[in-house]
Amino acid sequence: MIADVLADATARMDRAVEAAKEDFATVRTGRANPQLFQRILVDYYGTPTPLQQLASLANPEARTLIVTPYDKSALKAIEDAIREMPNLGANPTNDGNIVRITMPELTQERRKEFVKIVRTKGEDAKVRLRGIRRQVKDDLDALRDEIGEDDIVRGEKELDAITKAHVDKIDEALKHKEAELLEV
């Protein structure tokens, strides 16, 4: 019974860590990366539609990204959605067939701002992990009547170890992203 609760906790924490890594990927570095455009919603015939459903993304050069829409009538809407994306600073150009995005160089000051954003995202991810831990601890406490006190204490220690391992994974991803951001 405790093993099932801990397995569920591990799976939920794994998903939280993956979500944090995906969230880190949306913060731009000096290079153009298709993951930066993962959360862009384009107003396509009045419906907010993810960019990946409307176009293919190619990365021919380090700072250039090419968006090829499946429907040429969506070009202007895609261009506007990219231009309005906060923290991107990209200025897309449209040649009638594709949207070409050249990412500007990041200044040192802007890089430090992005590091702060990533650290905030990392803290949010850790808060989610602690929330999962709290819920699982409540689930373990609910089992107190059915299972012995020693087993509950052992389960809580395992839960703490699982939580620490997942927090360490987030810290490692955060450290990697910070190094990537500060790399010139």
TrEMBL record:
Residues 21-182 form the Ribosome recycling factor domain. GO terms for molecular function: ribosomal large subunit binding. It is found in: Cytoplasm. SUPFAM superfamilies: Ribosome recycling factor, RRF. Gene3D superfamilies: 3.30.1360.40, Ribosome-recycling factor. It comes from the Bacteria. InterPro entries: Ribosome_recyc_fac (IPR002661), Ribosome_recyc_fac_dom (IPR023584), RRF_sf (IPR036191). The keyword Protein biosynthesis applies. One of its GO terms (cellular component) is cytoplasm. Keywords: Cytoplasm, Protein biosynthesis. Its main location: cytoplasm. GO terms for biological process: translational termination. Responsible for the release of ribosomes from messenger RNA at the termination of protein biosynthesis. May increase the efficiency of translation by recycling ribosomes from one round of translation to another. Belongs to the RRF family. PANTHER family: MITOCHONDRIAL RIBOSOME RECYCLING FACTOR PSEUDO 1 (PTHR20982:SF3), RIBOSOME RECYCLING FACTOR (PTHR20982). This is Ribosome-recycling factor. The gene is frr.
